[in-house]
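Known limitations

Files may contain more than one protein. Parsers should not assume a single record per file. Below, a two-record file is shown to illustrate correct handling: read the sequence, read the token line, then continue until end of file.
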Amino acid sequence: MRTLLRILISLMFLVIMAPITLAEEPSEPILIPPSSPAQVTVSGIQETRATVSWSPVPTATQYTVWVNGQRGGGSAYPAAEIDGLEAYAEYTIYVTAANDAGESGYSPSVSFTTLPPTPITPNKPEVYEVTDTKAVIEWQPLPGWQFIESYRIYVDGKAVADVDPMEGIQSVELTNLDAGIHCVAISGINENKEGPTSRPTQFTIQAIPSPTGLVIANRSHDRVLVAWDVIPGVDRYAVQVDEIPVGETKDNSFVIAGLTGETNYQIGVFAVLSDGNESARAKLDIQTPPQAAGMTLDAVMANTYDYIPDVVPGIIIIFVIGGAMKIARAGKLAIGRQFVFRRY
């Protein structure tokens, strides 16, 4: 019994003394920099800002967005908004992750282009060459930094066409217009959005009779005088030669100069109202006469010398007759004097 008691006491002592070494705390794990972020994407692209997002890195406590090689904004979350960008400019970005042990390498890069600025308001368009169904509108182009992709044409408040930009003054012909008063306006469109519309321009579509009684009142080898009947209510008349404008007049006649002799031309005349509305063109085909031979000194002398052989006999006869008449007068005068002398 005593022997068993001694064994139990020994075991209890060993149990009590053994936990002293087992209760020690474990050592802390070694911290290393995080891995590089992946799956970088860009969304919400505007004129001067964009949103960047990426997949989270487990050991990262901070992220940095790099813009064109320059350190940009930071974020504790796997997304960030970058602003202060230029409109319609290209950017390349990548992301790094960091913790207390250091910073990761660069993520794969992503490139994007910001949107162009919202188009400004175009100038008020002008209307030309109005007929009974058509009209031509013109307007100044928007600046190049607007990056305009097309212009939208509005007639009476409704969009009727999108036209591509062209060099210089922008122009488009409106067709199939109904008679009456119309309004036209313009807006610019780029990759960003459509800008505001211009101030509207009003014009009238109405039928105007074309000039009648078109005739050539006078002509020479290099110019013609054309005339036509007066049309009431017309502001002016436009004149063309072979469909090329040569002038305008408020009278019902016009002198066309600078023509060439023995040449065929087509004369065109149409009436124009004060708002630019034009009639159909009246046409007349003509041919200029040949140029008259010029009178020069050489030509006169040559013609004179050609007639000298025929003139000489006449000259001799004239001199003979004239001499005879002079002799007869002299004889008559002498006889008359003698008669008077003898009488006294």
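...continuing to the second record:
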Amino acid sequence: MTHRGREVRLHKVPRGVPGPDSFLIADVEVGEPVEGELLVRNQWMSLDPAMRVRMGGSGGSIGAVPNYEIGQALDGMAVGEVLASTVAGYEPGDLVVHSQGWRDYARPRPDTPGHRVAKIPADEPLPPQSYLGLLSLVGFTAYVGLYLVGGLERDETVWVSAAGGAVGSLAVQIAKLNGSRVVASAGSADKVAYLRDVLGADEAFDYHDGPVGELLGKAAPDGIDVYFENVGGEHLTAALDALRPGGRIALCGLVSSYNAAEPPPGPTNLFAMVSKGITMTGFLAVQYAQHMAEYRDLVRGWLAEGRLDYRETVTTGLENAPQALIDALAGRTVGKVLVDLR
């Protein structure tokens, strides 16, 4: 049996901010799975700012994850229902998370590490799309950056940039749950109000309201101990000035450079790392996968106690996924960005 569906392909490498013409939606036929494959009807897909890096034109890549190729379907994490299986342990009706998003139908291989296939437990109390956000590497990234990389202690101060996003908003809350002082920054007054009034950040500011260094200085006049880095550029420069001796930077992302047509200049105050003994560590959460179970147990407990506020920006329809990614890159979304494909 053949299924007709759609997939989103990279049409051209963007220079700067991607536009709708960077994408192409193609009709495709998807056959039955061959040995070692599942046939999955996708229900949800994840959109992440780092996808912009994989589109090319920004001078970067994500570790061993290859960039997208012109004319080929994009990929990313998705949740779907198994329609047919040739793999023991997977049956029609099972829900799985896998890495072949950006399409209606997928044929992932559980034995291929890059396909990242995992069955969602039938008794999971949280909705399936949680495996693209709270219970995924997205949420886990906040935990890893704060504690396994940043070494944040209860009596310390952390600054979280891009704090209105999926990772940043969770980092703010997890740090507060641990008893730390949290400074958060974002790109709009509405996000600042959300961070301060809903998530409980001790201080929050809109980075558009002035030089970032000055805004950070007012929010943390005594300095910071940990910087959760999502932005780069002027934000990183400000952090280096504000960090106390022995400060740590957990380098999660550099979203300010993702749409840059030319490589942006680096900070001019890097010597602060020498004079103050600052360490900066880049990381991918998957490098700490052995801690995922403990993180998920914590999250389920916090949710049961009503101690986490988790928000999603949901777009409906595969045809609207490209614009949803463009909006996410422009900072027009809050929390985890998802596409409902049902």
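Parsers that stop after the first record will miss the second one. For reference, the second record is described as follows. The chain has nine helices and 15 strands.
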